[in-house]
Design brief:
By secondary structure, the protein is mainly α. The chain is built from 5 helices and no strands. Helix 1 (about 15-35) runs antiparallel to helix 2 (about 65-85) and helix 2 packs antiparallel against helix 4 (about 95-115). Keywords: Membrane, Transmembrane, Transmembrane helix.
């Protein structure tokens, strides 16, 4: 009788990307309710309230979120990168499929974190 092998998880290597991405999305939703940061998306620098000055015109009004949000985005990207190196992320996968899947997760987390959390933190700053 043959012993069954380890179950092949379709989420192997994507837990940090998925869970971290959902956590960042929930955080951004809560910050939208508190600070209305969506008003600053795509805003030219000339429309900032502190243009040619140095007032409180950023999306988060110079709270700790302007520093904490990029830090959390960095932690998310690093956790995705570390997860791609774990043996459990590579289990039962071929060479090319593993590389493509890991690269997409890493590049996706970098693009998403640089586009929204980090981009907002420097808007009108």
């Amino acid at each position: 009788m043959e012993q069954p092998g380890p179950a092949r998880s379709t989420m192997a290597g994507l837990w940090a990307f998925t869970v971290g991405g959902l956590a960042m999305a929930m955080l951004m939703f809560q910050l939208e309710l508190a600070y209305h940061w969506s008003d600053f998306l795509g805003m030219p620098e000339e429309q900032c309230a502190n243009y040619y000055g140095n007032g409180n015109a950023g999306p988060f009004a110079y709270t700790t979120w302007e520093y904490l949000l990029p830090f959390l985005a960095f932690v998310w990207v690093m956790s995705v990168a570390v997860e791609q190196g774990l043996a459990s992320a590579r289990a039962n996968r071929g060479g090319h499929g593993q590389v493509v899947r890991g690269a997409l997760a890493l590049v996706g987390s970098i693009v998403l974190s640089c586009w929204l959390p980090c981009g907002l933190a420097v808007t009108c700053g």
